[in-house]
Protein: Metal-dependent carboxypeptidase
Organism: Marivivens donghaensis
Amino acid sequence: MTAYEELLAFSKETAALSGVVETLGWDQETMMPRKAAAQRGDQFAALESVIHGRNIDPRVGEWLAKAEAPDAAGAAILREVQFNYDRSVKVPAALATEIARVTSVAQGKWVEARGEGDFKAFAPVLKEVVRLRREEGAALADGGDAYDALLEGYEPGTSSAQIAEIFDAMRPRLVDLREKVLAQPEPAGVSGTFDPAVQLNLSEELAKTFGYDMERGRIDKAVHPFCAGHGFDVRITTRTNPADPFNCFYSTIHEVGHACYEQNVRDAYAGTPIGRGVSMGVHESQSRIYENQLGRSRAFTGYLFGKMRDAFGDIGIANEDDFYAAVNRVEKGYIRTEADELQYNLHIMMRFDLEMALIRGALEVDDLEAAWNERFEKDFGYPVDTASNGVLQDVHWSAGLFGYFPTYALGNVYAGNIYSALRDAVPSLDNDLSKGDLSNASAWLGENLQQHGALYTPRETVAKACGFEPTAEPLLAYLETKFGGIYGL
């Protein structure tokens, strides 16, 4: 075997082990007995010890020094392996193992604390998570900025300064549009009680409509919706609320966007370092374009209105136009995952600033709840009522995912660019969506972006799909046009 072939075989074995970890994580959030948390933490730690050992194996460095790529895909594989190797060798094995153990335990404690609205019960383990991630960030940064080093793991090639510049450009127009919208009469929402079992049945139908292959996936319930897996095993979760069926439907469509990205990567890349989404920002572009530009469009909501009437009968909405306004209603609320398109990015901007301060040591965990509440009231104009609706609402910090949050807003920016190109490429899009036909949209996204996996860098992936360098302007123009129309601005 050549050095390249040996490296590829070794990488595939490591990827298989990482897949086991991901499946265990899915199980932890959906089916694992509550009292198994400590045992699962030990399992994660043991597996992470093995995986980290493989990631820093000296042979990887030797193979990289000798390997010659056979083609463009091979060159991308070497790029990804080199990136992972360079990061892994900076992190001590004991630290990587301890992070896996503590974050596993922390997620269980977060679920309990969120249910009780008790941040103080969660704070001790969060302190441990923050301490470990600060240590990891410092090791990765090698004298540079610890937060940027963590961000690099989710969005290679992007710095916090670049993210801040994008956010600073977006914030004034978003705030101005929100003020104009909130000054208008609020559209009516749906009314009634919506059977969770019926919600789940319809959400599965919607998942299939958007292209999710149920023979390579499944849908379960979890506290926080997520997608897990790659290739031939890509699982999603959703949640239900008897008073709010949109929570279930749009969480499902959102996660289907992630899942379709993974399911549509070329089979030839399966198990290799390029056989999955290239970054969380690009991943989020797919979930957000499925959920919002497609799923919340006037054309598709007209189709969904009929589906909901068939499933639930009278839902308190008289016609398709009113239903479109209800789906896209801008209103006060606390929960990021339930926020409308207009306010969603403001939630992310707040979290971005808070987690940067945590990792850089400018904010401590004991002061986090107060800092969250103060910032939320400043940004949104009303106080947080409970910790469950505030600092405890997201799973990310319990999982140690510092640097992840800004990729959500970056994904929205990418989605704005991709949607602009999609509309130009598929003239029949609105007519298709009005019939619940996502085939042309799905095919275009699969062909122009999803099939490539990590063949290209994140910005290259988006630029190749939309035909121009991504900027925030298409997203802002889309939001101003959409909400200006709904609210008569």
